[in-house]
Amino acid sequence: MKIFFTYRYLALLFILLCTPRLQASEADTVRIRETRVPVLIDRSDNELFYLRIDARHCKTLEEVTVDFGSQVNLNDITALKLYYAGTEGVQREGKTFYAPAAYLSRNNPLYTRKANPSYSILAATVTSPGKTVTLKAAQPLYPGINYFWISLQLKPDASLTSRISATVSSVKTDAGAAPLQYALSSPQQHFTGIGVRHAGDDGAAAYRIPGIVTSNKGTLLGVYDIRYNNSADLQEHIDIGLSRSTDGGQTWEKMRVPMSFGEYGHLPKAQNGVGDPAILVDRQTGTIWIMAAWTHGMGNLRAWFNSGQGNELNETAQLMLTRSDDDGKTWSAPINITSQVKDPEWFFLLQGPGRGISMENGTLVFAGQYIGADRIPCACIIYSEDHGQTWHISQPARSNTTEAQVAEVEPGVLMLNMRDNRGGSRAVAITRDMGRTWQEHPSSRKALIEPVCMASLIHVPAAENVLNRDLLLFSNPNSTKNRNMITLKASLDGGLTWLPQHQVLLDEGGGWGYSCLTMIDRETVGIFYESSTAHMLFQAIKLQEIIKE
Questions:
Q1: What is the pLDDT averaged over residues 391-414?
Q2: Which of 69, 416, 495, 548 has the smallest number of CB atoms closer than 10 Å to its CB?
Q3: What's residue 10's pLDDT?
Q4: Active site residue 403
Q5: 3-state SS of the chain: helix, strand, coil percent to 5?
Q6: How many CB atoms are located within 10 Å of the residue 542 CB?
Q7: Interatomic CA distance for residues 308 and 349, integer angstroms
Q8: What single string gives the DSSP state of each residue in 429-497?
Q9: Mean pLDDT of the chain
């Protein structure tokens, strides 16, 4: 009997030792994905990390430890937070997601600046954190997939040039330290920013179509559509809005409305929309100009298809200007230049939204676009040689192109960088005679990918930047399919090449994707764009962060 018991014991021990056992810590790996989106100074929550844990054995997430990078200014941080976002549905079984919902919203006015409490529960908060932060949660886990996310809150006076880098260094459950699996191989650098316009601000549903310049006095002037009812294009209830900053974009004054037509002609406001603005500074006089398209009538249908031939107000969209001679504080009554520049056979003439330029010889230039008599759109330029008294229009640069931006790359030589409806990449052309003739640039349809979207291009002469190099700067969604991956790029050879080492990703999230660039000072470029985090976002990027050689 004693011998039999010994044999049974040995057999059982052999089975236990030889049978593979899945430890709780091995089964319940925490998958981590760091975001690549801006951190907004004006938000109380910013998504920094997503955590996903398959709770097969552990029952509680005890704590998460985060290490900030050595260059992070901890004095800029108000709090680090851990949120629990619940579990997953069976419809996603077998697939790897990192969030079951959008924790903050770009379009819901209630949750553009703070987390939506319907989608996650605050599990832990550490205020005034040090370099290493432990978020103690003791959060019960649901059997199966569980989601968490880490939020960062900056102080209201945090600098636009602050940068955030961090690592999730450990996660502990009731079963001990959990294995960590990172979706991205190395810590990301998060660029700070400020939401100049969010959904719902001043009662408007949406803000779209950014343009920005730096005045002769150093004031930043950002323009955009105020889209009151929804995010739809003209024809709709849309006015031109303007935000003004005198401290490099750190703070912004109350919104101004430089152009609005109300119920002109006894028609509703939604049939008097004005939009798609472009803005420029006359460097010789200091006057600031805004150009926009006014649509009157059209029965609330899209102007792109419903603007007609002719030049009269009841026939076609009107090309309008307004000017400021006091650094953007007040604006003139609208000035109609339609009859000066539009061929009556064309269906629609408007500016390329964004910004225009003041050439070395004083000529003012906006990019333009029109739908010709053949219904094919073409990009062009619209210019004035007498400081805005009279205006002229060029020959088309390329067919089937629309929203363009113009830069003077050499004295008297203009580069037009165009949205190309063929898709996939930007079209680029050069003129040396103010658009009477155009030459295709070697980079055209090759060097700059796009998903068919507006983009920005500025030329920064060597004498005007800290690197003492002639630069072209460009921004757009760096994708051929989606309006995401907003990227700022530099070219050191006149736009022939745009090398990977001379670009920075600012926002991987999806949005409308339009952007506009301006130099804040000799070492910093500002970007004003439609981001995944705000309808109008402003960020300040050092040139040496883009050009790292």
A1: 98
A2: 548
A3: 47
A4: yes
A5: 10, 45, 45
A6: 15
A7: 10
A8: EEESSTTSS-EE-TTTTTS-EESS---EEEEE-GGGSTT-S-EEEEEEE--SSSS--EEEEEESSTTS-
A9: 95
List all residues 6 or more positions away from 252 whose beta carbon is below 8 Å from its beta carbon: 194, 196, 222, 243, 244, 245, 538
In tens, the pLDDT along 321-350 reads: 999 999 999 999 999 999 999 999 999 999
H helices of 190-329, where? 303-306
Concatenating the DSSP letter of every residue in 199-233 gives: TTGGG-SEEEEEEEEE-TTS-EEEEEEEESS-SPP
3-state secondary structure 17-37: HHCCCCCHHHHCCEEEEECCC
> Facing residues of 472 across strands?
459, 491
Task: Enumerate the H helices of 324-403 as residue ranges.
Answer: 338-341
Per residue in 197-209, pLDDT tens? 999 999 999 999 9
Q: pLDDT at residue 1 above 70?
A: no
Q: CA-based angle 414:418:421, to the nearest 5?
A: 155
pLDDT of residue 93: 87
Task: Say whether pLDDT at 295 is over 60.
Answer: yes
Report the alpha-carbon distance of residue 4 to residue 306 in Å, rounded.
95
Q: What is the pLDDT of residue 27?
A: 58
Which residues lie closer than 8 Å to 73 by C-beta, 6 or more apart? 158, 159, 162
365/355 Cα distance (integer angstroms): 9
Given a contact cutoff of 8 angstroms between Cβ atoms, the answer to whether 69 and 104 are in contact is no
Find the helix or strand (DSSP H, E) in which 163 lies.
Answer: strand 163-164
Measured between alpha carbons, how far is 396 from 172 in angstroms, rounded to an integer? 63
Q: Are strands 335-336 and 377-384 parallel, antiparallel or unpaired?
A: unpaired
316 pLDDT above the threshold of 60: yes
Lowest mean pLDDT among 60-69, 84-93, 274-283: 84-93
Which one of 403, 408, 450, 530 is the catalytic residue? 403
What SS3 state is found at 53?
Answer: strand
pLDDT greater than 80 at residue 236: yes
Helix (H) or strand (E) holding 2: helix 2-18
User: b/e per residue, 439-450, with b = 16+ CB within 10 A?
Assistant: eebebbeebbbb
